[in-house]
Queue: 4 jobs
Job 1
Amino acid sequence: MPHPNQTFTELESRWHAEHWPHLAKRQLTYKDIEPVLDAMAATEQLTHTVVGSSYLGTPIRRLSLGHGPVVVLAWTQMHGNESTATAAVLDWLQLLLNEHPADLPTDWQELVTLHVIPMLNPDGAAAGTRETAQGIDMNRDALAQQTPEGRLLWQQVQTLKPSVAFNLHDQNPYYAAGEGGEPATIAFLAPAYHPDKHVDGARLRAKQLIAHMRQVLSHWLPNGIGRYDDTYSQRSFGDAIAGTGASTILIESGEHRGDPSRQVARRLNVMALQAGLAALLSGVYQDYSLADYYAIPDNVSDGFVDIRICDLTIDDGEHPPYQVDVCLNRDPDRAQGYVLEFVGDSTGQQGLEEVSGAGLKWQQLPQLGAVADPLLAHVREQLSQR
């Protein structure tokens, strides 16, 4: 398959010029996106619908474009602290509205109806938590449906009957695209709808669409795309929605070196969504096989840490000195700072930041999970004196 043609290069240029600049943040709340939703609601081409409200009463809104028989539904931020795709879908709609996309037929809005629900969990977004205001992980609420937000999503699926469903999330920063690979900036999955992982026509189409999206993204990200394990989860919405006959596609936004606000993943989400829509309407996805899908490297958990200091000498003055690798991760309880994640041989892991500790010394390591800021400051000071 060829790399993306000039169409996607032009789309990328348009994204840089037309994306919503004030959404360039790691964490978005309803207050951040409300002005964008209001501006889009005033656009004649779009249909704006308040489809319900969160547990604490924040509106949950849907934007719809087109009026064709092929129904595409995308939703974001069912986990409140996973904001990347929320900015991306609003960018995507902006690009679709501002100019006719060169990769879509001229009558594309008569062929497809696109529905987007940004920020399904505004209460969690406001609190910066994965869970809803009830303390429930909405993505594990597909069976019990104890959350109003989960019930709303299921009602939308039952009413709209999407042909293709995009379930958009963020993953933690430490996934790798294959063993020893680059950070998994984007990860895909066509979720199973049954424990034996049947591949029916709808799931086959999802895998073919993913293979095409991966091929497009490989132009910018040749070694940073992963494929999630497809173990069936009865409680999860992606698996449940796949069971309705929708070609369901999970896209997880991940880390990219030197990009803590995940703007690279944001831009690539737009490229992937547009590639998926264009392939769906043109039928080009049918050129891909299951082998193309399974050629995507596994999404490997714990392939990365934030900082890996290799070959650091520990010398407390009482015992023989020894050399270890020291891995640090961001402290989840502090806006800045690091905690000690691992000590020893870190073969098989990589650091988003790699530091050579050769020739550097530290007296005594803290306990695992303890604050490691003094250690890191000391290492950086020694390096600066070289």
Note: The chain has a mean pLDDT of 95.
Job 2
Amino acid sequence: MKVVVVGCTHAGTAAVEQILKDHPETDVTVYEREDNIAFLSCGIALYLGRIVNRLEDMFYADPDTLRQDGADVKMKHEVLKIDSKKKTLVVKDLETGKEYEDSYDKLIMTTGSKTYTPVLKNFDNPRILLCKNYEQAQQIYESAKNYQSIAIIGGGYVGVELAESYANTIHNVTLIHAGEQVLNHYIDKPMSDKIVGLLRDHYVDVFLNERVSGFEDGDEITIKTNKGEHKADLIIVCTGFVANTDLLKGQVKTGEHEEIVVNEYVQSSDPDIYAAGDSCSVNFNPTQKPVYIPLATNAVRQGFLAGKNIFGDIQKYMGTQASTGLELFGHTLASTGATLKNALDDGINADSVIYNDYYRPTFMPSNEMLMIDLVYDKDTRKILGAQLFSKHEVAQSANALSISIQNGNTIDDLAFVDMLFQPNYDNPFNYLNLVAQMAIAKEEQEAKAKK
């Protein structure tokens, strides 16, 4: 069987490795238009903040290793056209300019995503940069050496992480976001207020509910918004991502972000085309709906499954809780599952409780406050999501809650599930038990009020 993999970052690498592990006799061809593969873009902020010294350390695989495993890896080759009916591709060698045709039995689309670039006046200024891939990270790093004031457009994960990196390297930082809160896909407003407060405490100027309309060049670039103007030497645009799926437009079913819609075996509406990573949808377990959530964790898992399932319906995709973590000025923010706003928008009868207390007994010589926002379904009492914030390391608690959501556990389960007690780590009831007990108490109080 001949398998063609288009694109090779997280999902593509995982797919190729899995195919050649299980079926080393498979004819696998990889087309990648860049000169590198498997770049961890989540490490860009670490590099810009001087925490990681070498951007090259963000690569966790290389073309030669895949070749040694048996793949025909063609770097700097761009796929120009795909005909799904004929199962053919038109490919261009970007070094020689030569174009030729290839064919496939099974196609795996791991073309990833591209930065969403809104139509803005004078967007083509060389001091207005995007942040996603290796080359862009290099450009940002070099440019930032020469400029003191930096404006970041977009308050998602990339924007918030970059704001911290530049604040820590003594730049003047402005963060402009069109919405009323930052990280709106992952946290609710009470948690956003914490993050915004932390950014401002570290001298990041945060402007919410401001939509950028254009730029004006000068000694400094003027940023025009619906509320006025800002100035900066360098601008980095982090306005989210859209799936890079133009090659299959009109040939497979796609969603609102142009992502390829896949089934539980990561198979598209064309049975011979599979998709993984930022190019496709995921099944979001809290709502049981296909959505677009471009995360490296989703990409690796789906790539693994694509490498298995092209040989048959072997292993189903478990779906995702979109669990994420962020270290910000010595604090940990971790989230999993649905926010309250997103759950309500999806028509779920949801509610939430917020826990604020020390993570361990007050008699301990040192301690840290902990905030947990727990979201649950009032009808089924199932846990839908959670957000945690503390100087204490709470990332693994988000993982525990992700398992709870995956398994369909309720607030009643979480309230009394067995968890260790040791004064170094927690109270006799762990804080996850306690926040669930708060949810139970809230529901009991509302039930009594209705009688």
Note: Residues 5 and 30 are 5 Å apart (CA to CA).
Job 3
Amino acid sequence: MVQSISAARVATLVGDFDRSPAYVGLSEALTELVGDGRIGLDVRLPSERDLTAALSVSRTTVTRAYALLRDGGYAEARQGAGTFTRVPGGRSRAHDRALLPGPDDGDAIDLNCAAASAPPGIAAAYADAAVELPAYLGGHGYFPAGLPRLQAAIAATYDARGLPTAPEQVMVTPGALTAAAIVAQAFTGPRDRVLVESPVYPNAVGAIRHSGARVTGLPVDPDGWDLDAVGASLRQVRPTLAYLIPDFQNPTGHLMTESQRRTYAGHLRAAGTVGVVDEAHQALALDGQEMPRPFAAFDDRTITLGSASKSYWGGMRLGWIRAPHGAMERLTRARLGLDLGAPVMEQLVLARLLTHPHDVVQRHRDRLREQRDALLAALGRDLPTWRVRRPSGGLAAWCELPAARATAVAVRAERHGLIVAPGPAFAAEGGLDRFLRVPWTRPAAELEDAVRRLAAAWGEVSGDAAPAPRSSARVMVA
């Protein structure tokens, strides 16, 4: 079946594109739409006549825009059929063989990785940053703490959120995962204990364990944090660090209130434990709610990890550490044993995104909200026996199954062309096979298809008394 997109829909998606000249602006807008998946692959574009009328431009503008699109490899003309979207390198260009190790994975719907495509505006930020890059080429290019202008821009975001921060308290890293590894390297050793939430982002646990520290899990209930249990565990274990995700916790989606942050911070101080707070999802409030102040506003010993990957794009590979005064020297010594700094180009991009008026994050949130609502509606319709809470932000739904068969469901789902992560992947110390994480990071139609495949897998597993065969281990990115 040939997929097509109407001229009216294209007009809505391209919006107020740059018209200086119009054909270039239209081509660039269409390129970005195809590249980030808002217009799918092998989709027939509107005829030149229809799009001309929908956009109120000349026929020449559309003709030349389509020609540029074809020259760039983002469309192809098929004789007698029209103009169809494509991407240079084909569908496989978006996949990494380490992430999709199976021979047939290339055509699967990948919901193992909870990371979205780049929102509108990222390509333009890269183009603008490229103009600035030559000014930095005369130097060595190493900035272990980060470009000063980016440090200042990140510090300003904390100021705006009610946490006064000096630029010298910020260290820019190649992603939040590297930030976690630097903190663990700087503050823990083989005899130290680190308390981590469970379920939890598994790669962060791996980074902490790499320092030699011993990890102890602290359960996060399906309905939130049990702060009495937090206090009891901290008193008993007396860990050096406690890794927590108070902002749309990965994978449960929970959001910690200010009152809960104040209580949690009190427990940490009483135990002499330093909180390491992962704020990777903090900017992804999808219901327009006012976000609580940063956790560090309640405990000035807190080390905060930030990331551009979820609020902007994973391919940017930038994160940061916001450290208390006096901690940066220790972090710098640890950091130099791992790497010498983040790429200058990407730092220029992020500095521009943070300091220039833009609506990139808001447009990203709007898209994620639409996808979240589509996913939750499909789960409610096709899997009514599953318990699915509605997160007010973040990137994924944490689904509770009627029986502990999540691993079996994930294995069966692969046979239906769907890759999804079962609960045990997020368990710090085992268990959680009643849960499955389903991200809403793909287009709505693809998510609805994914849920149909998931329902088929559940139907097979729930009626099968025998355990499903084990699948090959998969690498999880986010």
Note: The two ends are 33 Å apart (CA to CA).
Job 4
Amino acid sequence: MPAMNLPVTLVERTWDVIVAGGGTAGVFAGVSAARAGARVLVTESFGSVGGSGTNAQVTPLMRNVSSGVNLNRGLTDELKRRMNERGDGATDAGGNDNWFNPEGMKYVLERMLLDHGAELLYHTHVVAPVMEGERLTGMVVHNKGGLQEVRASVFIDATGDADLAVAAGVPFLAGDEDGIHQAMSLRFTLAGLDLSRLNAFLGPVGQGSLDPVFIHFWMVWEKGSKLEPLFRQAVEEGTLEERDGDYFQAFSMPGRPGELSFNCPRIRADLNDGADPWHLSAAQIDGREGIERLLRFCRLHLPGCETAYLAAYAPMVGVRESRRIRGDYTLTLDDILECRTFPDAVCRNHYPVDIHTVRNRERLQHTTTGDAPYFRKDAFHEIPYRAMLPVGVSNLLVPGRSASATFEAQSAIRVQQNCHSMGEAAGLAAALAAQGHGGEVRAVDPLALREQLKGLGANL
């Protein structure tokens, strides 16, 4: 059968900046570029923005502090303020302000984009780049209008999997030294719970403003875990599989009494590539089967969960790591552990090396202690602007979890608030490149970029 030559409609309008992907980094990139005066279009494959935080239901925002001070500020502060004002965000008794309702966040992030002047095109998928040498002139997308080409001076790949960059020929890495990725998860929410009874049974892990319990953290197979005998019984009776006890974690959310958001189940080990459509589809199925097992377990074995019901599956699998571009600079584990700083830094991080590995029984390597400088309470390292500049394309930026980093380093910088900061920096840089440098992102003065970010509230 001959290949089909499908028609592509050229959209007559053009933009200064097009952001591919309205997820964790993409929203902040779009807001930042629009706030700087650029004409911005954000394309998104779902019908809502927020990516991992909303459509994958990854709550809360993981904490990233040095000496108790938040390292991600700027637009992240605006998000938290808006969330708190509408009752969809909260601060616990320890001062952690990272709790949020993912459904409320969908609306808040959308309003941030629109209020700052960006445009949104939902239900739209990246298909292919349009190139002239090393320059992107357009991006072919697919939606209800068929195949369409949209054009801009600068593009930002915030797809999370570097879809646009890879299609444009940017070299990339994926997985560890053997190509094995971090484990994926499919999150879900249970409602109809009596959290007071559940907490009385488990014992409080923490107290805070979320009623009545703000967090439970359960590692079932740890020695002394109160849940281990219950899980053993459930495995023996066929309610659970052995792997269901490897990672079992849940949180409550502001404004949603009687509910818990579960950071599980883990997807089976052979399905770990979030950029592989077959892995991704099978992961969605495997995750739902795991959720059914966990729902039965909770109803049968946990006080306060007898009348629990499934409130929501996350519509998007939680992918921790897939493709990582080769950029002008590649962040390394040594950069993190030695607390290296850079003159072109756009973000500071103190989140630990956090590898959810599929290689061993523990399935988690969380490096929080050691002799390296990074383990001091006042430590941080920086992420340079150059880590978002992909090799071989002159007018493209790649912020977020696909930025240029080694497998180990990516596990520390991939959390949502760092993606916020990288996205905000990429958006401002894209606007500056479009307005004063013909779209050339390497022509932007990184020192001036850093100063402008500081003036906008960034912790640099």
Note: The mean pLDDT is 92.
